[in-house]
Amino acid sequence: MNNTFLNACMGKETDYTPVWIMRQAGRYLPEYRKIREKVDFLTLCKTPELAAEVTTQPVDILGVDAAILFSDILIPIEKMGLKLKFYEKKGPKFSNPIRTQKDADKLKVINPDEDVPYVLDTIRILRKGLKVPLIGFSGAPFTAATYMIEGGSSKNFLKTKRIIYNDPQLFTSLMDKITETTIAYLSAQIKAGAQAVQLFDSWAGALAPSDYEVAAFPYAKKVIEALKPLGVAVIYFVNDCAGVLDIAVGAGADVMGVDWRIDMAEAAKKIGKKLTVQGNLDPCVLFSTKNHIKEMAVDIIKKAKGARAHIFNLGHGILPETPPENVKTLVKIVHDAG
Ligand code: CP3
């Protein structure tokens, strides 16, 4: 077993900087597209043998130091009581979004063993054969709430913010249910064998810092605190984190994941020696030359020395158009950088 990733999570010294890539299993890989030709995305997520196969693809093809469970942050939300569909161009849509207290009252807290057995089975299959640690994941409560309220992706999160400002009771009751679901869901993933978990707060950076402090941070913190006794590393990724990073580091995670809009030197300084930093190459750099990729990656590795340890990653998910050759090159560059 290659433990470099887990050691870095816990702040132990490693021989080289471990690397994995957010959304590393996906459409940029021809091997993934070949499987997707035969099944739709949700069926793929819900078929353990296939989900395990696509989870393993980037480990074999790229040589990354960790695998991330193939699933989606919207899977547990569907089981809370929302109707989910994925559209080829428009992305995910919920046809019955949460807009009133009545909508929120109808939602249930999931029971993972009954509601998402395929996720737990995928983890069990993976743990039998994987040569690298397996990362489980969930959306952080605020990011999950944006999908539930907006009914899909959003540019300015107006419907979500309207509820935060005008109906705090509805917002709080919704967030409490999501938080409970997230704790149950991640605890079950850990019990099934996940060796680390990442909370994706992909849209928390859309909040003013003072709003982040009341509408996103306390719920992420509650999830992380509940997972602490289970003893596995928790990564808290906040996209567009620059304005809220000072607050986010207090959530109690072992690893803070950051995007590229903040310079790694500044992020490492804010994160300090108590936490490991993860990130933060702009996914678009993978469309540049080998020399430029190397220059940017080595610069990030140097700057991350201000934190207690570094896990190399992109600053957000890899783009579907990315040339796989360049991703392989990046992994080699990070490993060779020492
Ligand atoms: O390799 C991995 O990272 C594991 C699998 C994974 C997926 N989604 C698979 C996926 C993970 C960790 C996610 C997380 C996720 N899903 C997030 C948080 C991370 C982030 O990018 O901010 C979010 C916001 C979602 C919701 C989601 N899923 C959207 C908005 C979309 C449509 C846009 C898009 O990228 O297509 C998805 C679809 C999705 N999730 C795909 C994959 C591989 C593409 C589906 C396909 O094969 O057609």
Portion in beta strands: 5-15%
CATH class category: Alpha Beta
Radius of gyration: 19 Å
Runs in which pLDDT lies below 50 for 5 or more consecutive residues are: none
What's the number of extended β-strand segments?
Answer: 9
Query: Topology as H/E string?
Result: HHHHEHEEHHHEHHHEHHEHEHEHEH
Tally of alpha and pi helices: 17
The coarse overall form would be globular
| Distance linking N and C termini | 20 Å
Fraction in helix: 40-55%
Q: How many domains comprise the coordinates?
A: 1
Question: Which cofactor or ligand species appear?
Answer: coproporphyrinogen III
Q: State the major sheet.
A: 7 strands, parallel
What's the architecture, going by CATH?
Alpha-Beta Barrel
By CATH, the topology is: TIM Barrel
